[in-house]
Amino acid sequence: MSPDDDTARWDAWNAASAPQYPHEKAIQFLLRRFAPAERAGKVVFEPGCGTGRNLEFLAREGFVPVGRDISPVAVEGARARLAPWLADPDVAVAGLAEPAVAPDSCDALICIGVLDAAGPAHLGPAIDAALRVLRPGAPGLFLFASDADFRVRGNNPLGLHGYTEADVAAAFGAAGARLDRLCLDRYITTYDNRSHAQNEHLITFGKAAG
Ligand SMILES: C[S@@+](CC[C@H](N)C(=O)[O-])C[C@H]1O[C@@H](n2cnc3c(N)ncnc32)[C@H](O)[C@@H]1O
Questions:
Q1: Topology of the domain covering 3-207
Q2: Per-residue pLDDT reduced to its tens digit, 143-198
Q3: Annotated domain spans of the chain
Q4: Residue 107: its H or E element
Q5: Fewest C-beta atoms under 10 Å: which of 26, 94, 191, 210?
Q6: Distance 158 CA to ligand 1 centre (A)
Q7: What is the pTM for the complete model shown?
Q8: pLDDT of 16 above 80
Q9: How large is the C-alpha radius of gyration of the chain?
């Protein structure tokens, strides 16, 4: 699939299906790490921000949101959603590997439901980019489908990729000393009397301090 096909697919999704409310893991991850008095001015980067449900939550809590997405429809939607909060939000069209965000400039990173959308060629470059833009010591979170997720089995209209445990361990392991902590967890939610399991990799990490 060409980059143009990916953009068209995600433009259509962002126009029709983008969720409205912030993801519970974005809320938990950020509010547990930053007390209310620490939030103002803290820059949180969301690669693959979609139409900005998490960016709006960040702005409301006093963080400075920075968003990037390959979909122009997503970026337009996110900018409109942030308009009541920020006169000129830092939201732009960019891919995971080259986000055009200054090195060492972000206090945290959240990337939710994007690596599965983008596919395996993006995993290593996305980790490298995250470790470039985060400040030393800053935390990050990636959430994305595993190979056991019902969305990647059978009918898969969005072409999501499900990552194995080995894929994930190898890619984050390659970051080596650039990480000072790494937790490879799962976030599993079942539906319809457990007939469907949304089985995601929940990766939290910190950029090494020095
Ligand atoms: C399922 S949506 C998730 C959006 C947002 N993170 C959220 O939680 O609402 C996946 C997003 O990833 C974007 N995307 C897909 N491939 C991408 C890539 N290579 N670089 C940046 N964004 C990408 C899509 O345009 C889409 O907005």
A1: Rossmann fold (3.40.50)
A2: 999 999 999 998 999 999 999 999 999 999 999 999 999 999 999 999 999 999 99
A3: 3-207
A4: none
A5: 210
A6: 12
A7: 0.97
A8: yes
A9: 16
